[in-house]
């Protein structure tokens, strides 16, 4: 029973004071001057004041509240990938929870953290964020303390841990004699020019007194290039050539040593986006025609292309007696372009070009050799390709995917995609191709060919080939069998997607990775791994995935459009995933690059020690003995000892019921009041 006295006056306190204070002053004055009956008058006044103040006795029924204990269990990857830590953590958490259940003074809240779906949360061990979430609805007076079961690698230790108002105890998994080596990038640019040197720096770190030189394997896009050497603890420079446009994964790896804690941090990763230096394109137009500037305008509008364009305006047979010094035409530098600098070009385009002795016959052989060695050639054919001066009648024949049959079809037709073209990255998804007839204008000329070699991705009148793409040696060749593309560019009958088509053709010839027919790509989006397979086949086999910790997964690739298959799956690990599909392999990094979670994985109590000291808690290793005992302590008492940890108890309670007992009411109060006033009247009457 909790008794207390309360007042519930019939008037407000100011009114009550205005009524009683003057009378009280008169009574006190009479008492001071020694008047007879002054004590009785004062007693009557006190009885009247008590009646008006209405005192009440309150009997409160209260239920004591429990103190709240937060048990934060670290399940981050630095804990789970080292088997003994995960087992120790699980056993300690279960035992702590069981011991707390024996006390009626404590309410236990267990929070497991480290297995979040967010990449940012998985990148660091944030135990104090989890602790704050567990105690957010608990007033400070009811917080008993916190028990953190972790390896000590905590990345969000606050500077004001004492604000919790309760002890923080750290139970550290792992051994005190752990040793580990790790590698990290110190400086890694995000972008680099394809084929140009890129300068990076890295550092190899080790615990204890390890020193000396370490072999570092340099791996780019899964292929080991060379072995570098680094001195432990010293920043080491590294220079590599950026191999590909788009995303490149640069790995540095060191071999594990005996009894090393883990080799998960023996790799460092840098993601470098390769940017192509301006592509050099040589465009040779055989003669002026209606669509001559279509290719030129397109290539000039691309900031990534350096264009060299020549038009043969004056063939050798044109002799009109004009003196050479009066001609304003630029001589065609054939030897410089096709002998000395031919390998500097990424693409050569012959636009309605015919052999008229402008190029020596031997130079066509140089062009064919250029293609064989990795160059790119595009033939935009017109009627001259079917004539006697066709370049198909030169040594360039070795590089051509088809030979003319002498036929030139002069009739209207809609360019259409073939079944192959519907899946090929160059023509797949062209705007307007989904309907029949296609939603673009007609063309009116087609050059006939026999026995095309390569992939026919577009067809014209009579289902004859219109666009052929072919690989020749290490290079590529494209053949456009019409000179009517300019009708799309001029908007004839609504025009057509000439920009997309011409640009894709040019970039496929120059080996743009995104336009490869057979391509496997993967990327991390947060903690999801997204896999895409481009193929000319009608289906794709399942993708085999190797996780950063060495585990294996399988993902079924579902249709994502013609020639495309994809899969997406949630992951629980940060790091590099290796994906294989058929003969293709690729790499993808999921989560933040070089996450702090894998930086230093040696267990330690040093990071938690300041927070424990500030709150009166403790930090101790679980491997050094049994779990400490749990002792309830008062607010002002010590909260730790050699073999025990203390948790605060609270005096807070919940009011369940209140019983009111009025003191100055009823017949007794009335009798006392009448007696006091009657005695005063009697004394005054004497």
Automatic annotation (TrEMBL):
Provenance organism: Nitratireductor pacificus pht-3B
Protein name (database record): Glutamine amidotransferase domain-containing protein
Transmembrane segments: 12-32, 39-58, 661-682
Superkingdom to which the source organism belongs: Bacteria
Keywords: Membrane, Transmembrane, Transmembrane helix
InterPro entries, sorted: Class_I_gatase-like
